[in-house]
Amino acid sequence: MKTKNILLTLSLLLAACALPGAAQDFAMVFLTASDLRSVQGIPAASAPRVELPAMDEAEAAAYLADREPAEAAEKGLPGEPAPVNLGGDGVVKFYHEWTHESLEIRYRDAEGRYIPEALAKIKHLFRCRLDGREMDVPAKLVELLDIIQERTGGRTLTIICGYRSPEFNGALAGNSDAVAKKSLHMKGWAADIKVDGVRTSALRDIAKSIKAGGVGYYPADGFVHVDVGAVRYW
Hints:
Layout: H1 2-18, H2 33-40, H3 57-65, E1 91-96, E2 102-106, H4 116-125, H5 139-151, E3 157-161, H6 166-175, E4 190-194, H7 200-210, E5 214-218, E6 223-227, E7 232-233
Parallel strand pairs: 1-3, 5-7
Antiparallel strand pairs: 1-2, 3-4, 4-6, 5-6
Helix pairs in contact: 1-3, 1-6, 5-7
């Protein structure tokens, strides 16, 4: 039932985002049965055109599964995490689980300088699945994903969730008490990942061994949450 509720909520929010001239920022609105009937009665010619692919139950369930304990996540971190070379080779390979986009790119040059165009492409790949909004991805998170990739044999990292807009996170939190209302996904500091051919437990152990931030283990859902907030495990 919760999954069906969140699918309805997110579908309506996706439609709102796709309306011509819709504002970039909007408030969460609680809809009544009469509102739903009004939406259903929109003539086909004027119906909202949703650009993003439809969200199915499997995707909604994956987002709801991440029970990030965000309350202590920013402890001792006054601003964006400082970049730090964690030992990766400066190249990342990503595949997005839901948009089906692939990206293989060098984000750090031989002199250790970050490449703005590459970080912009990563930012776009990590955009919010609900409304397409983007948020800067800290170089430290890219470095963390890079070294995880190195330690899993250079395999492509599958991204399940990157940035979440406040509206998206609010819809998730409204449908599950377990979803953090101040998730680091909302800052662009977190990613939910999996790697084909690598056990979720092994991926968790690799991420924990780096000690660069939080690590959440979701074996039933087949992914690991990593972030560049405070070091903590759940």
